[in-house]
Design a protein that fits this description.
The chain contains two helices and six strands. It is of the alpha+beta class.
């Protein structure tokens, strides 16, 4: 048998504390909307029984120089939230904030446009007690056009690919 010396490897976090904070934030996001599904939305006929709550493709929001978001005071996450009743693009501060203005977000119920390269999305300011302030742009509601969770998640990934591809192209053109 081949005798190899014991190799001790120091366990280290590859992505650092920022990834842990992001993962915790997304767990809170999903838990919040799972709770909404079983409370406020229970029995509402727009629920697609074959779908569940899932945060898809959330990353730090790309900031384009000269954009309105370039001056935002807090790091922002952007991705798609799939639920049994809607699919929305969300802008979520990396840390919870009670007041939308503190994060450069729209006030609750106020609509405002944001550009991702050539794409314009209309976001609405929102707030949930467990999340704080965030913004959401509707993609689909209700969700009956999706056969199952994999189909909804694939669509969410494609939306994000198109939005992010557009932002990268804008940066290259600048």
């Amino acid at each position: 048998a081949l005798a190899l010396p014991a190799v001790r490897r120091r366990r280290r976090t590859v992505h650092g504390a920022g990834w842990r904070v992001m993962a915790e934030r997304l767990e809170t996001l999903e838990a919040t909307f799972r709770r909404i599904a079983t409370t406020r939305m229970r029995g509402v006929p727009v629920l697609h029984a074959g779908l569940s709550v899932q945060a898809v493709g959330f990353t730090r929001e790309p900031v384009v120089a000269g954009s309105k978001s370039a001056s935002m005071p807090l790091p922002m996450l952007m991705g798609v939230l799939v639920t049994p009743w809607f699919m929305n693009v969300l802008r979520l501060p990396l840390t919870s904030v009670a007041e939308a203005a503190m994060a450069g977000l729209l006030p609750v119920g106020v609509t405002g446009g944001r550009r991702y390269g050539e794409h314009h999305l209309d976001f609405v300011g929102a707030h949930e007690p467990t999340l704080g302030a965030f913004e959401q742009a509707s993609l689909f509601s209700p969700m009956f056009s999706f056969a199952d969770q994999p189909a909804a998640v694939a669509t969410a990934h494609e939306v994000l690919r198109l939005l992010r591809q557009s932002v990268v192209a804008s940066k290259v053109a600048a």
